[in-house]
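Structure first, sequence second, as always.
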């Protein structure tokens, strides 16, 4: 499918898209801190992102089981940072994300780290495989983070009802 496009163009294009998507996510997350949180708002991103797994229908994006495990493990490690820095507070009888000065820097740092890793691994992997691995990394970063957020949210919501 991508055989006619030189791999360095695909790498540049996918890196530019990663920066655009990362910037988009950061803007959305920072705006979301100004509105109350809900279970739906916490769970929609991983469900929406899961549709990206359809990429694995195509041979170019499939990765070996060991690569899946490595990408998932790295995503889980990244998610820990996000889980630890995502906090909630009660304002105006509603649950809000607590604004964190570190959060934008963490998101930028994770994006930069992903880009660096992508550039390093571009020499060893086909562009399609690399895309598959980074999708897995991102999914395994977002899913545990959102589950962690949901647990924290439900605990705070429950304590608000009791109080």
């Amino acid at each position: 499918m991508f055989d006619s496009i030189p791999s360095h163009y695909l790498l540049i294009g996918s890196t530019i898209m990663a920066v655009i998507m990362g910037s988009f996510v950061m803007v959305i997350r920072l705006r979301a801190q100004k509105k109350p949180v809900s279970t739906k708002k916490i769970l929609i991103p991983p469900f929406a992102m899961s549709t990206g797994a359809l990429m694995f229908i195509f041979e170019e994006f499939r990765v070996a089981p060991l690569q899946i495990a490595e990408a998932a493990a790295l995503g889980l490690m990244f998610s820990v940072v996000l889980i630890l820095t995502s906090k909630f507070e009660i304002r105006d009888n509603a649950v809000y994300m607590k604004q964190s000065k570190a959060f934008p820097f963490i998101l930028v740092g994770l994006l930069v780290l992903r880009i660096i890793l992508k550039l390093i691994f571009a020499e060893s992997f086909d562009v399609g495989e690399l895309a598959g691995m980074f999708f897995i990394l991102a999914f395994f970063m977002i899913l545990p983070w959102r589950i962690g957020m949901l647990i924290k949210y439900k605990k705070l919501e429950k304590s608000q009802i009791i109080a």
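Margin note: Helices lie at 7-32, 39-50, 65-85, 102-121, 127-162.
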